[in-house]
Every structure is written in structure tokens, then in C-alpha cells.
Amino acid sequence: MVVFRHSVHTELAEVEQSVFWRLAYSVLMPLFFITSGYWLKKRSLKDGIVFSAKSLLKPYLIVMFLINVVGFVHRMAIHNLDEWRTLFLKQSLLVISGNYSRIGAMWFVFALMVGWMIFYGLIQIENKRTRGLVSIGICWVGTMVLSYKLPFQIAQGMIAQLFIYVGYIMKKEKLLEKKIPVIWGSVLALIWLSIGYLSSRETICDLATYRFGNGMPAVLSSLCGAFLIIKAGVQLSRVENRFIEKLGTIGRYTMWILCIHSFEGAVVPWKYLFRLVGEESLAGSLFQLILRGCFISCGCICLKKFLGGIKNVRKNY
Prior knowledge:
Layout: H1 2-7, H2 12-17, H3 19-38, H4 45-77, H5 81-94, H6 106-122, H7 128-145, H8 154-172, H9 182-199, E1 205-206, E2 211-212, H10 216-237, H11 242-252, H12 254-267, H13 282-307, H14 310-316
Helix pairs in contact: 3-8, 3-9, 3-10, 4-5, 4-6, 4-12, 6-8, 7-8, 9-10, 12-13
């Protein structure tokens, strides 16, 4: 969905008027945050911070190094190093996301790291009720300061930690293994669709551009929608089907895909493609999506051979 969205070139106003995209944005990033929290274990604060940095800061720094090297060489060749300092170096050092950002989807990786670190601080609180209230409070503060566009994805991390914590609770309480009564499933769907639609009419839920609907109501909507989609995904994974198995494999390579996509999005001169086909045309979007898919696939194959396969993917991420 992330790669597909980045390959569909339409005016932002058109995206915000689309019910499909508004609802997709409301759950896309929360899904990743929740599923990451599902696999986290309780650690001491020190061990948790070290684990977060080793797991997420490492890929961020590697991708930013490669992007900055390519950007530096190109801007030096055209005698425009000031633009490199502004567009590449400053954005990567301060982790500035948003439209036309050169850090690409790696903002999510850094925000996830901040969210994990807050989570490991949160998990030190023994009382479950207090822990939950503190998590909600941190998320609320994050929604309040999000519009100030703080560096280092601080606000995004504050919001993310609630989704991460919910994923952790889902695992502890075995919520994915329990059946949901139809009435409760309907209530969750109603909350997601109604609040998600209304809260995004003026401000879409897009943490990359420092926006998340109307704050905490949008968070509630995202939690409901993400939980239902994860629940549906669990049911789907039980079906024996070759296509579904391939989807599972792609899911296990999410971190690689995100990193490679961020790299190609920042350094590949897609403008030359759009000289042949219109950028906002169906053909332009389709060709870019196909080429991106080929680029990412080749990158994953190379990384797999270099790092030794899927076992290392699971071990490292």
C-alpha cells in the first residue's frame, strides 16, 4: 500500500476527498505500529533502548548514508551543494519528513524507534491501569504537539507508542486467538468507518506530514480499524493458498522493502520516466509501480544473498 500510494500521482486535495484513501491512511501506519508491538518482549529500560537502537537506528543510518552519498555526488556534479545540505543532510540529521522529503519512508523507522523506547519506559510501570492511562496521556500530548513539526519524529513516536502498547496487550491477552462476537465486530467497524471518515474530511491521518485527523478520536478509529484488519489477516493466513503464502513472505521482508523503497524514491531520477508518460496518468503510475517493484525485488534478492536469507531477517528485525 505504501509503494502503491507513492506511485499514484494525484493532487493531495483529490486524495483527501477520496473515502478509500482517507480510510486507508487511518489504518496503514497504525497497522505496522501494532504488529511491531505484538512481537516485543518485556525488557529493562536500558536493554529496551539498546534493542530499539540496534534494530531500527541501524537501518535508518545505513539508508541515510547511501542517500546522502548519492545526493552529494550528484549535487557536487551540478555545483549545487547548498541544495544537498538543505534537502539531504539537514533532513536526514533532523529526521524531517513531509512532502518532497528526501528521507522517504524512513521517517516511519525512526518514529517506530522512538515509540519503542517510550514503550520500554512505559512497560516498567507495574500497575496495568496506570500504564494504560499513561500511554493514552502520552499519545494525547503527541496529537497536540504534532502540528509543531518537532524534529526526530518525537510527536509521531509519542502517538505510535499507544499503538505499539496495544499490540503488546493483544499478544499478552491472546486477543487474536479469541472469537469476536458479531455485535462487537460491528461496533468496531462502525467506529472505524464513521469517525475515520468524519475526522479525515479536513485533515487526513498522515503522520509523515504531521497530521492525524482530529486527534484522539482519529486514534480510536485507527485502533478499531487496524484491529479488524489484523484479525481478518489472521483468518486469511489460515487458508492454504500459494498466493497467500507469497504475501506472508513479502510481509517478512517489510523492513527491507521499506529501506529499498526509501532509497530509490530519493535517488532514482523518475522525472525521466515522466518525460515519456504523464506523471498523473494511469500509464505513468503503472510504469513507475512496475519499475519500483522490479527495483525492490532485485534489492531484496541481493540483500538475501549477502545476509544469508530469511533467518537473518527474522533475527535482525
